[in-house]
Amino acid sequence: MLQEAWNPSADAGVRAQDCFPMTKLPLMNARYRPYSFSHPLKQKLAYLLSVERDLVRAKEALELLLGSPPLFGESGVIASSLYTQALVSYFRCFPAGTRKGLSRALYSERPDLLERHDDMRSIRDQHITHSVSEFECWDILVAAKDESSPAIGFGIQSQPPVSASPNKLQGFFALVNYAHTQVKKSITSIGNQLAKEVVGGKATWKSARRAFDKHLTAEDVDGPTDIEA
Question: Which among 60, 102, 145, 176 could bridge 149 via Cys, Cβ 3.0 to 4.6 Å?
Answer without folding.
Answer: 145
